[in-house]
Amino acid sequence: MYQLNNKIKNLVPYEPISGTYAIRLDANECPDNLPDELRAQLEARLREIDFNRYPDPLATRLINSFSEYYGIKPELVTAGNGSDELIFLIESAFMEKGDKLLVVSPDFSMYNFYSSICEVSCASFIKDENLDIDVDALIETVNREGVDLVIFSNPCNSTGRGITRAQAEKLVSSVEALVILDEAYMDFWSESLLDKVEDYSNLIIFRTASKLVGAAALRLGFAVANPTISRAIKAVKSPYNVNSVSQAFGEIIYQQKEYLKNRKKTIVKNKEMLYNGLMELAKAQEDITVYSSVANFVFIKTNQSRQIWEYMKRQSIVVRLMGEYLRITAGTTEEVRAVLAALNTYFEG
Ligand code: PMP
After folding, report:
1. Own/partner long-range contacts of 30-37 (Cβ < 8 Å, ≥24 apart)
2. Which atom of ligand 1 approaches the CA of 221 most closely?
3. Whose CA is nearest to atom 5 of ligand 1?
4. Which residues line the pocket of ligand 1, CB cutoff 6 A?
5. Beta strand 178-182 with 149-153: parallel, antiparallel or unpaired?
6. Predicted pLDDT of residue 17
7. Ligand 1 centroid vs 274 CA: distance in angstroms?
């Protein structure tokens, strides 16, 4: 009888929340679909695709468009089937069995999840009481413990807090470990290290088209690193990891500079509105702590997290429950109004 091995036998497939809800604020997605004019361009492009042919393994046109948007060199970029693919790929290829991975806590859970499959040891560096990373203490831990790879999101999913560019550079230049900064939410802030990857032998930055860019359906993630690391990532990835439709659509979407600029403004404005509304609520409710956020969501702490989450679901609004915390994505202006109104009604009741 075939037996599943120990590292996979207790794993369960990822299951997003089931059911239909009028308002989805649980996955930090962009609240609006791509506009009609842009979708018309994508449709026209669809007709040019050679479906009988394999995709371009180097995603050349997509990467050129991405690099032009961010003002970086295309040679430094590798495209992935979402950053999720890149996290798994890089953790498994850049570490050897028994190596030491360090994650920070709280943070995006997938970094830790994949480590069990890679057979590396994974330790957590705990953030301070404001949910910030003490960078000096992190450097000390990485060096003392002989960590091989440290990975975290900046800005952080779930807290919405971030470390500055100067702090990130201090970390990268003070350790020998490989540092992966997952900048999935950096499109909403301005402390990116993208323009610095060539200065370091030990830095990889991830970006994604799933958040500001509003194309989560395409599964497009990017790893940016110096030429030596980029070459290695390209060598270990599967040849046709990004399909031709996603390559072609991504190429067009990253050309929409004006559109993306406006989208950023709107989402940041709605995030502020959500934050201010939650702060108002917190003034009257001792049980709520609201963390200021540089991303497209707001993180709150409350002893009633589960009750609030259940109540919201009954109002057809879904937010993310994480223990004693709730993470609420900044949706459209109407969605932010609705979530604040529901919270106020909950507390009045
Ligand atoms: N990194 C972080 C920090 C995220 O929050 C997410 C999505 N929730 C991802 C990576 C995954 O991004 P992608 O859709 O590109 O796989």
Report:
1. 30/211, 30/212, 30/213, 30/214, 30/216, 30/263, 30/267, 30/296, 31/267, 31/270, 31/329, 31/330, 31/331, 31/332, 31/335, 32/214, 32/263, 32/332, 33/214, 34/214, 34/215, 34/253, 35/259
2. 15
3. 157
4. 28, 82-84, 108, 153, 157, 182, 184, 208, 210, 216, 221
5. parallel
6. 81
7. 22
Q: How confident is the model at residue 116 (pLDDT cuts 50, 70, 90)?
A: confident
Query: Taking a C-beta distance cutoff of 8 angstroms, is the pair 192, 168 a contact?
Result: no
Can you give the pLDDT at residue 15? 83
Specify the pLDDT at position 14. Answer: 86
Cβ neighbors of 315 (< 8 A, separation 6 or more) are: 338, 342
Atom of ligand 1 nearest to the CA of 84: 16
Question: In angstroms, what is the span from residue 345 Cα to ligand 1's centroid?
Answer: 32
Q: Which two tokens stand for residue 298?
A: 């707001």
pLDDT at residue 74, rounded to an integer? 98
The alpha carbon of 83 and the centre of ligand 1 are apart by a number of angstroms equal to 6
User: What would the mean pLDDT of 324-337 be, rounded to a whole number?
Assistant: 98
Q: pTM here?
A: 0.97
Q: For the segment 155-205, what is each residue's pLDDT rounded down to a tens digit?
A: 999 999 999 999 999 999 999 999 999 999 999 999 999 999 999 999 999
Calpha distance 83→221 (Å, rounded): 4
Residue-level pLDDT at 210: 98
Residue nearest to atom 2 of ligand 1 (CA): 184
Q: What is the reported pLDDT for 217?
A: 98
Compute the distance between CA of residue 21 and CA of residue 286 in angstroms, rounded to an integer. 29
Q: What is the pLDDT of residues 209-256, one digit of tens each?
A: 999 999 999 999 999 999 999 999 999 999 999 999 999 999 999 999
Residue among 162, 135, 193 nearest 299 (CA): 162
Ligand 1 centroid–CA 207 distance in Å is: 8
Ligand 1 center–CA 314 separation, angstroms: 27
Atom of ligand 1 nearest to the CA of 210: 14
